[in-house]
Amino acid sequence: MIKNIAVSLVFIFSVTCAVAKPPEAPKLIPTKVQSQTIVDVIAQLNARHYRNQAIDDSLSTRFLESYIDSLDPAHMFFYTKDVENFKKHSLKYDDYFRKGKLEEGFEVYRTYRARVVSRLESAIEMLADENVKFDFNAKDEIILDRSELPWPTTQAEADQLWYMRTKLSLLNLKLAGKTLEEAKETVTKRYKNQLNRILQQDSADVFEIMVNSLTLLFDPHTNYWSPRTSENFNINMSLSLEGIGAVLQSEDEFTKVVSLVPGGPASKQGQLKPADRIVGVGQGDEGEVVDVTGWRLDEVVDRIRGPKNTVVRLEVLPAKESNGETAVIRIKRDEVKLEDQAAKKGVLELSDEERLYKIGVINLPAFYINFDKANSRDPDYRSSTRDVSRLLDELQAEGVDGIILDLRNNGGGSLREATMLTDLFIDHGTVVQIRTPDGYIARHNHARLRAKYRGPLIVLVNRLSASASEIFAGAIQDYDRGLIVGTQTFGKGTVQSVAPTVEGKIKLTESKFYRVSGDSTQHRGIIPDIELPMLVDMKEVGESAYDNALPWDTIHPVPHAKYFDLDASIPYLTEAHKKRIAHDPDFNYLLDQIAVMEENKRKKAVSLNEKQRIAEKENLEKQAMVIENKRRTGKGQDPYKTLAEYRAAQEEENPEDAPVVSSRETVIDLDGDTLLNESGNILIDYIRFQTTNAQKQASNFSK
Q1: What's one Pfam family here (predicted)?
Q2: 567 burial class (0-12, 13-18, 19+ CB within 10 angstroms)?
Q3: Measured on CA atoms in the order 329, 332, 338, 339, is the torsion positive or negative?
Q4: Residue 183, H or E segment
């Protein structure tokens, strides 16, 4: 199954404005320029991609599988006989593409469009037929993820499959408060709009899907952009763009949230989470939520963006849910400025029952730099390194005992800044190695100055710490300069560049990052010295969740200093950490939440019985109340007595229109951050361990 397509691909489950009469479908015939473009794409993949992969019969077979699954990931439209018929060309696509021959691939799409049109027309007729009954008291269920199931073999089998799918849509709308007739009207409109949309697709759409089904076999970050996509493509709605501040990608027929831009509206609002799938977008508080399942990514982004201070409503399938029910999230659009991403500081005051420790905290949401001002030699230009340097001075003036550099949710940014930031913590030395496909290794990214901060250090990471964050954390870990605490990081260790093709552009992976230890950051990411949990499904988020991701590997290490003997302290620190969290109500509450999430993710089928679904929802709420009461009791607070009391408290904690948090201050609120507090305790344990064992700094780190 093809997943995680980070380009604008076309699928069929999508909705635009309602049109009374479907347009005449354009003829789907490849153009001469497209034939020339596929030859160019093949040549560039062969010559420039990091993965040395032959374009042969084996890849041809995988391409056809990729192409079919990108069109019909849920196995809802094609018949088994269609797929078998397509296979007669399965060993020939490598030869076809070298010759610029696209007709066979277009024939697959023409069959697909015919099946979609026929199926949607039948579904619309079914909803209008008063003799077709939808019994929500029957004890039936439906499997949501059909990607591993066979395609239907007969029309009767397909009809039953679509009856059940339609019934699920109707039931979800009923559970959301609609009458059956209102639900039928909504689903009918959805199907009509989907029909209208599939009939609008042209040869450029077909070509883009086809080529990306090939490029994604090299790695998930290698994509072809059509001319239209090249003009509109920008999935990172940040900095000068007004929107919600989210990084999005296409995955199957959905638009998936990869990460939230720190300081952006979605991050501040707090309800949208990584791995959530956006299925609808509404404008303002009253506008209709339009189904965007199957839309091209650039079209979804265009609907989500909008003027500052306007409202967008997102209908999402939450990643932690498994029953197909959606939630609507209201977010006020804003412009994500540099100040929103700027480093901020705070001080944790923690006691080990013998003395009070002051732990400095620096939160760095991104590796940023104002290139325009830096290049014009403006002495006041902003950068992550400059800001962190200033905050280090301030914290040391306040007499902190140690520093936590918080890189949670930091998705990367400037490689130069990752290198420069390392200068603040280590003396002269290599920070990162970069390897190209021909085996050339560049080691010119060096820390050049003496370290500014030389005291106890923890780097706090999570699954959403990626790219430049991993380079920095890897260097700190390899030099034994500080402890890495948190969750295994994202694993984005590749470098891409964009090049023109005959028509459109191609984004190619051309090199990989490696640590001074010789380990790549690709796929595996950074493994923390002490692990902390995170309420994110590791199978859904991270490089390892991508199909065809480049593997982890190693090259020769670079000779480098070791500033402390951290290996000696880690067993002691781990044991102390485990003993402490065993009695921490907040920490165990997080573990209980993760257990519930994992239990829900294991469910493969969803009931179509209305009473059972209502009971399941209430049971989930009761389960949530039980673990919340467990936490409250552990903290000496009164537990909730009824579900109604618990629900009221939840609504109060998560208002629909959450207030916007000011990001202009350099001081951060540390209250209630369970993982940060535990990281502070780990740092105190480390300081005590150093003192008790009279650990000496290495001679090359002496003052």
Answers
A1: DUF3340
A2: exposed
A3: negative
A4: helix 180-198
d(CA 274, CA 182): 32
Q: Whose CA is closest to 64, among 204, 206, 252, 214?
A: 214
The encoded tokens of residue 314 equal 């997102």
Show the DSSP H helices in 507-653 as ranges.
566-581, 585-601, 610-634, 643-653
CA 482 to CA 564: how far, in whole Å? 8
Give CA–CA dist 216/219, Å, rounded.
5
**pLDDT tens-place string over residues 538-564:** 888 899 999 999 999 999 999 988 999
Element (H, E) at 54: none
- In angstroms, the CA 297 to CA 6 distance is 8
Which DSSP letter does residue 23 get? P
CA distance 528 to 522: 15
Active site residues: 467, 478, 492
Q: CA-CA distances (angstroms) from residue 43 to 6, 55, 93, 199, 224?
A: 22, 10, 15, 33, 13
Find out whether 407 and 364 touch, Cβ atoms under 8 Å.
Answer: yes
Which tokens in the block code for residue 12? 């069929």
Digit-coded pLDDT (tens) for 604-626:
889 999 999 999 989 989 999 99
- 10 Å CB burial of residue 260 (0-12, 13-18, 19+) is buried
Taking a C-beta distance cutoff of 8 angstroms, is the pair 526, 470 a contact?
yes
Contact between 28 and 109 (Cβ < 8 Å): yes
The CA dihedral of 101, 103, 108, 112, to the nearest 10 degrees, is: 140
The C-alpha atoms of residue 341 and residue 415 are separated, in whole angstroms, by 16
Q: What is the pLDDT of residue 358?
A: 96
**Paired residues of 368 in beta bridges:** none
N-to-C CA span, the chain: 56
Contact 459, 482 (CB under 8 A): yes
**What digits encode the pLDDT tens for the residues 375-428?**
788 787 888 999 999 999 999 999 999 999 999 999 888 888 999 999 999 988
- The answer to whether the beta carbons of residues 19 and 199 sit under 8 Å apart is no
Rounded CA-CA distance 158/328 in Å is 31
How many Å apart are CA 248 and CA 299, to the nearest integer? 12
Helices (H), 216-351: 227-232, 265-269, 297-304, 338-341
User: Please, how many CA atoms are within 13 Å of residue 309, restricted to the half-sphere of its CB?
Assistant: 0
d(CA 369, CA 384) in angstroms, rounded, equals 6
